[in-house]
């Protein structure tokens, strides 16, 4: 089997693994398609923890968990048939559907053109030294895998990092039989692109929400703005994340999934399907890398607070608390496997307190060139908060402060790591700033995109009651 076919079939396998859970949470929507392989990657990451903790075989655990998840969804639908997702056929007029369709096709075309970077067969240093190395560990026997993860003389401090990116490649190797770093790199790039398409779907959902609050004649303008935003975020994100998005690194995955959780959980209206998408993306972010783990915990707290504020009855509040508990348990699964088996953990001595002021200034200076978009986003947020509060509220979109809190949480996580770490801060920043600023940069562009959609809806004067009821 060729490398391309091995990677393609493995990506499809991830999509099949995650299709039913994604469909159960998101329903019949465009976001379900790119969300499915991301969900499959989450199941593979859970399987990696089960393999390390309980033994067996990693590929068998992946298949078993996907069958269990799919069977659970089917059993739920059989027990509660009214909960089955149904295709919403009242999706607007024909011109509205055409504009949204053009946006969907445009995002896919933009993603395909951006993936041309895969034509150059490159693999990053961390990909070879860590992520692909752990692909092979997960395919060893259980006894050998324990030795791989526990051998403290093997100086790779990041080997205890969350397993999602390595699990994607390992599953591809195990299913295809082609044990090539190139296969792992392509699979990771395709799953990264799927996570990015979830962002496009979220911007289209924001446009639909804003358009529903407009008169019939103005909806086309709002949907057009949403389609343009959805298409534009693809090359923007690729530009921010190249070359890492196509050379096997883990940073793009956690950044894209955390940004998606911010969009669906903190910016869109509070609806069960959007909260389900946010939950899957936040778990994927936390299972991708250590920075993503801490950012995911912060996002879970923020999303839960927002949902609790929107809940009316006590019963609704109790239901709201179930999702974050499940998400936190999923995130703790790998940590439990690492600690129970005595594997190498991720730890670093703290820098002396007297040096932290210098390190903080170095972080501010080092991050500034990569975060110019926050100046633009901040200016737009201030203007939007002054002029567009009513259109934003009318559209059902979340208060912009939630998005900024989510952005600040992720930026604070990576900043604190650099400030409190003991390694020389200037070369550390120089070697990592492009990777660790991906999440706040993409989140900043999402804030700009949502305000752009809101502005398009706000250009219309208050819609008449008879128009709004149509």
- Element string (H = helix, E = strand): HHHHHHHHHHHHHHHHHHHH
Instruction: Indicate the radius of gyration in whole angstroms.
Output: 22 Å
- Chain-averaged pLDDT: 88
Low-confidence stretches: 464-470
Number of domains: 1
How many individual helices?
20
Oligomeric state as shown? single chain
Largest sheet descriptor: none
Q: Compute the separation of the termini in Å.
A: 55 Å
Overall morphology:
globular
Kindly state the number of beta strands.
Answer: 0
Topology:
Elements: H1 3-26, H2 32-54, H3 58-79, H4 94-114, H5 125-139, H6 142-150, H7 164-176, H8 181-212, H9 219-241, H10 251-267, H11 272-286, H12 290-310, H13 314-340, H14 356-367, H15 373-387, H16 389-395, H17 400-420, H18 425-436, H19 438-458, H20 465-468
Helix pairs in contact: 1-2, 1-3, 1-7, 1-8, 2-3, 2-7, 2-8, 2-11, 2-13, 4-8, 4-9, 5-7, 7-8, 8-9, 8-10, 8-16, 8-19, 9-19, 10-11, 10-12, 10-17, 10-19, 11-12, 11-13, 12-13, 12-17, 14-17, 14-18, 15-19, 16-19, 17-18, 17-19
Polypeptide structure, described:
Helix content is about 75%, strand content about 0%. The protein is mainly α. The chain has one domain. Helix 1 crosses helix 2 (about 30-55), helix 4 runs parallel beside helix 9 and helix 10 (about 250-265) packs parallel to helix 12 (about 290-310). The radius of gyration is 22 Å and the shape is globular.
């Amino acid at each position: 089997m060729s490398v391309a076919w091995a990677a393609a079939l493995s990506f499809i396998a991830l999509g099949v693994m995650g299709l039913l859970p994604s469909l159960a949470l998101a329903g019949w929507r465009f976001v379900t398609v790119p969300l499915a392989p991301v969900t499959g990657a989450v199941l593979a990451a859970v399987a990696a923890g089960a393999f390390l903790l309980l033994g067996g075989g990693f590929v068998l655990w992946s298949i078993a968990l996907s069958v269990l998840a799919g069977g659970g969804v089917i059993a739920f639908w059989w027990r509660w048939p009214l909960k089955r997702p149904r295709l919403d056929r009242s999706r607007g007029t024909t011109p509205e559907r055409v504009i949204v369709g053009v946006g969907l096709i445009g995002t896919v075309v933009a993603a395909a053109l951006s993936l041309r970077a895969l034509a150059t067969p490159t693999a990053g240093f961390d990909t070879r030294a860590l992520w692909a190395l752990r692909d092979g560990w997960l395919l060893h026997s259980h006894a050998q895998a324990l030795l791989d993860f526990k051998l403290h003389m093997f100086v790779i401090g990041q080997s205890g990092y969350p397993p999602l990116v390595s699990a994607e490649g390992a599953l591809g190797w195990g299913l295809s039989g082609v044990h090539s770093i190139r296969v792992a790199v392509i699979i990771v790039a395709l799953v990264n692109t799927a996570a990015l398409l979830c962002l496009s779907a979220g911007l289209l959902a924001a446009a639909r929400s804003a358009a529903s609050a407009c008169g019939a004649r103005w909806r086309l303008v709002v949907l057009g703005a949403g389609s343009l935003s959805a298409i534009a975020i693809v090359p923007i994100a690729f530009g921010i994340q190249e070359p890492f998005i196509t050379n096997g690194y883990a940073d793009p995955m956690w950044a894209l999934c955390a940004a998606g959780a911010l969009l669906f959980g903190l910016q869109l209206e509070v609806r069960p399907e959007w909260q389900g998408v946010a939950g899957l993306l936040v778990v994927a972010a936390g299972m991708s890398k250590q920075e993503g783990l801490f950012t995911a915990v912060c996002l879970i707290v923020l999303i839960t607070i927002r949902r609790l504020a929107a809940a009316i009855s006590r019963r609704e509040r109790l239901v709201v608390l179930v999702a974050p508990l499940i998400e936190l348990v999923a995130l703790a699964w790998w940590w439990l496997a690492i600690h129970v088996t005595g594997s190498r953990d991720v730890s670093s001595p703290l820098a002396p307190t007297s040096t932290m002021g210098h390190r903080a200034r170095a972080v501010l200076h080092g991050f500034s060139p990569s975060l110019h978009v926050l100046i633009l986003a901040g200016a737009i947020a201030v203007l939007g908060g002054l002029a567009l509060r009513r259109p934003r509220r009318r559209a059902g979109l979340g208060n912009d402060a939630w998005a900024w809190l989510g952005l600040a949480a992720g930026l604070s996580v990576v900043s604190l790591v650099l400030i409190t770490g003991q390694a020389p801060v200037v070369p550390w920043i120089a070697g990592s700033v492009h990777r660790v600023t991906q999440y706040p940069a993409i989140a900043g562009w999402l804030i700009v995109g949502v305000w752009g959609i809101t502005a398009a809806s706000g250009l219309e004067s208050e819609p008449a009651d008879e128009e709004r009821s149509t």
